[in-house]
TrEMBL record:
Iron in keyword set: yes
Organism: Salvia splendens (Scarlet sage)
InterPro entries documented for this protein: DIOX_N (IPR026992), IPNS-like_FE2OG_OXY (IPR044861), Iron_ascorbate_oxido_reductase (IPR050231), Oxoglu/Fe-dep_dioxygenase_dom (IPR005123)
Family of the protein in this entry: Belongs to the iron/ascorbate-dependent oxidoreductase family.
Gene Ontology MF term list: metal ion binding; oxidoreductase activity, acting on paired donors, with incorporation or reduction of molecular oxygen
Protein name: Fe2OG dioxygenase domain-containing protein
Length: 320
């Protein structure tokens, strides 16, 4: 029997119109269903990122990864941030990744570029990255607003939207130059709220595991205006498990490097993630006690091997 390869749901977020337009309403349902079943979907959004900006950001990220290792390593994880440089380590031998916390602030982005380009900074890259992430954050906000609305939790919208900041991470996957595919980024769930991934060149490799754990769905973008959206463990917990937080990985092959950029909405420091009581009842008992995202990350990193082996370390950390 020939196997048809599965695809992620494709949802168009361009021209949605007003909050209660018929398009808004029908898209909301599509998003909720996609995030329940797959924890992920491919979003198209025409001209969200103008082509020039995309090219310029692509060039900037190549230059960034071409910098000497000793410079790239200057971007360190400080306590409570996980935005520092990781290179060709146990995440995957082929991946390098580095990022900026609080990326919508010009101060945060300038601090990063001044560290990477100590002579005169990189004003073009600073400006581009900030604009790029602002655009991606529009997508993040639409998705979250729609989820909250479709769960009938309008009264929590402001609190929810104000409870996060944005982290941006850039990834480069070295070309394996072997006939076989190689693991670029190990299987994992994201731990934040929503992740929005944009592949910057035509080298594919991102895969999402189905809920039943049986099939890896390739998340190859179908156009330049295409983004992959994932649910992270924190949003899974907030929705009392209604949204699935999918396991995903990156597998690469061929002779060209892959580049991607991710925007992650993450809870603000000190914010306790607490499932709204409206989502808890006899049929849906509380899954997770209130928790602090950063303390959860500390737990994961101090129990790294066990956490990696566990299908859901959040259960071990604060399961109800
Ligand atoms: O590079 C990608 O496409 C995915 C990266 C990823 O999963 C992550 O940064 O959490
Ligand atoms: Fe991820």
């Amino acid at each position: 029997m020939s196997r048809v390869s599965m695809k992620l749901p494709l949802i168009d977020l361009s021209n949605l119109g007003e909050n209660d337009s018929p398009r808004w309403e029908s898209t909301k349902t599509q998003i909720r269903e996609a995030l329940k079943e797959y924890g992920s979907f491919e979003a198209t959004f025409n001209n969200l990122i103008p082509l020039e900006l995309r090219k310029s950001v692509g060039d900037g990220i190549r230059q960034l990864f071409d910098l000497p290792l000793s410079i790239k390593q200057l971007n360190k994880n400080s306590p409570k941030t996980y935005n520092g440089y990781v290179g060709q380590n146990d995440y995957g031998r082929l991946v390098e990744s580095t990022g900026v916390n609080g990326v919508l602030s010009s101060h945060a982005v300038d601090t990063f570029t001044n560290l990477m380009w100590p002579d005169q900074g990189n004003p073009t890259f600073s400006k581009d990255i900030q604009l790029y992430c602002e655009k991606l954050s529009e997508l993040d906000k639409i998705v979250r607003r729609m989820v909250v609305e479709s769960l009938g939790l309008e009264k929590y919208i402001d609190e929810h939207m104000n409870s996060t900041v944005y982290r941006c991470r850039f990834q480069k996957y070295v070309a394996p130059r072997t006939p076989n595919s190689m693991l670029g980024f190990f299987s994992h769930t994201d731990k934040n709220i929503i992740s929005t991934l944009h592949q910057l060149n035509h080298v594919n490799g991102l895969q999402i595991l189905t809920k039943d754990g049986k099939t890896w769905i390739p998340a190859d973008p179908t156009s330049l205006d295409s983004f992959v959206v994932f649910v992270g463990s924190s949003f899974h917990a907030w929705t009392n498990g209604q949204l699935h937080a999918p396991i995903h990985r990156v597998v690469v092959s061929g002779d060209e490097a892959r580049y991607s950029i991710g925007l992650f909405s993450i809870p603000k420091e000190g914010y306790m993630i607490k499932t709204p009581e409206e989502l808890v009842n006899e049929d849906h008992p509380l899954l997770y006690n209130p928790f602090d995202y950063y303390k959860f990350l500390d737990f994961i990193y101090t129990n790294a091997d066990a956490s990696r082996a566990s299908p859901d370390p959040l259960i071990e950390y604060c399961g109800a």
